[in-house]
What does this fold into?
Amino acid sequence: MLDISELPDLEIGLASETVDFDAAFRLVHDQYVWRGYTAPAPSGRRFSVHHALPTTKVFVARRGDAFIGTLTLVQDSLFALPLDELYREEVAGLRQQGRRISEVSALATAAASRRAGVAVLLHLMRMVVTYALKIGSVNDLCITVNPRHVEFYRTCLRFDVIGPERAYGKVNGAPAVLLRLDLDVARAVEAAVHRGEDSEPVHRFLFAADYQARVLSQLQSNLAAAHFRRAQFLEFFGDGVLLGNLSDDMRARLERFFAPVSIDRPCELTPADGCAWWGDAPPRTAATA
It folds into this structure.
């Protein structure tokens, strides 16, 4: 039976401090190693160059001092999306329609909280969907999932399958299926819940006005600081390993943004700036291919 209960002792929010990002990246690393998706890394962390982008948001779930869940929302940009590696043609079709896409990625829940894993996931997804609907100027949320989880996302969260099952090299060849949530569909469900016409428990959990107001308040509490600053850029990218895979132009763009002059600069971006901040439209093919 699906656990859609509220967890009053659970804190959900946006990562903004180094300790938050570090805990999230270590949690993803440990869970991916445990599932056989990756070999252990010397750093004990798993993250990508997309995490340096100011429009990428890392969501974390905590109980007390323990980080027990995380996922990352990557907005489309000149860096493309992580899923472009496997589903370039499918995503290109959405871009050609002028749709603004974000990818839900790097999802992990702690082993110690596995019994509450579905509830933690739903709390994280509620915050991500609220962010996408109310702040992020997004048309579609895309995610790659193991085939055994497809039915959960389809029936509970209204995702549709838009890409066939394939072996995903980024997770050691594990099978993946591409799903998409059209946020117009989410808005229709939201409106039905608000009118009292949809009493499906999971839909009320995601879209009830009182829940949304609380989640939106949590999001806005540190939204302006929820991106890498120079200290975090140096902490996670200072060894140059991930940046070495970028083109000279892409690396220069990141390095200019994180130049010393920006150490204490407040975030001048809005979530809608997205790709435009980089001076170009979203790519029609993967930028780093």
Remarks:
- Residues 11-271 form a domain with the Aminopeptidase fold (CATH 3.40.630.30).
- Residues 262-289 have pLDDT under 50 and may be disordered.
- The first strand starts at residue 11 and ends at 14.
- The radius of gyration is 18 Å.
